[in-house]
Amino acid sequence: MKKSKLVLVSALALALCFLCFTTVTFSWFNRPQTQKGDSLGWDIDYEISVGSGVSMVTYESTDGGVNYNEDSPVTEFSNSAGIAPGERKWYRTDIINNGASAQSVSLYLSKLSLTPDAEGSFYLGVNAPLKTYKNYFDEGSFVTASEKAARSTMRVYFQPKSGSMSQPDNNWINRNYYVCYGVDSAPSNYLALSQTPTSGTYYADIPANATQLFFSVQDWKHSYQRTQTFTDLKSDGQSDVSSLVFYLDGTYDKTYDNAWAQKVKVTEGANVVNYYNSITLPAEESFDASLVAGTDYIGNSITYTSENNSIFTVDSASGTISAKTQGEAKLITEVKGTFNDTVRVETTVKVGKAVSKAVTADVPIVTNLRVDGLNEDGEPTVESIYWFIKNDSDSGTLIYNVEDIYLTL
User: What is the CATH number of domain 145-150+271-352?
Assistant: First the structure.
């Protein structure tokens, strides 16, 4: 019995060995023909890039990429003059393969860097043989920009002459006071006057383009309109009314012929003429948001405050903003004048991602581009790359440095 088992095992082993040597493959399951492992084979004709015989030359176009100046190859790629917003610099780089074998090459900008005070946005585009585009400012970051505008209102002051508004016989006692203004027309818009912390002084914020106004007392508003007007508040060689205070003459005269007020110049009444209504900047950047005394504002003092110090801080005296992190908050600017009242304006400050002003890594134009070897006539193959640099922003000239361009395998 033991001998018969031994003979059976030996016979099976011999049969298995026979199958291994006489069949293409052995498997418990059928293997599809397409999975015979051809991808692992080695082709002795496989083309390996060695970089031998490859050169390049670059030309610039001055007509938007239509024609390229082949008489003057480009050797300097930095741009100290800068590119205006929305404008482009157009290039064509010809890669020439003088070798017998095809080559696979990549084209790079070497050590692109932006100046520390760079404005604009560096945008690199390729139109052929492939289409690729990339903005080398971080997505979501803000280029520093600001918008300064004239304030829509101006403050006018009314101050009684000594004792004029306390005389019991002039009907001005315990009354409410108004200013009536007009814009290129007779005054018809009433505003109640506010009293400043300095007793006896009143003010109103009227439209900055107002040209006429008069002073009115309660109960006279609709029945006894004073006909005395200032037909040109910007007369007397003064650029605006923000440096004027009106002295009231409280003498009551039913003929209404008396000049009820006279205008005189003051130098420190609280007024804001121009201010920043919006500022955008990247995190970790700074911006001077200060207003200019005598030009942007009139007053004894000016202070700056951040609504949210986690987004940006501001020097209360100088107005220099230091952006911290992404977000939006108000910059509050307050001017205090001779009469201790305060004029307040608000600026919207938007902070974006931090922007790196120096791109230390080399920047690819195209990668893994195949350039065939010599053709049948023994002439080199030329593959042209059409590319451009654009200032992809609405404001700010783009200035940048490029050490060189180079080919690599």
Answer: 2.60.40.1080
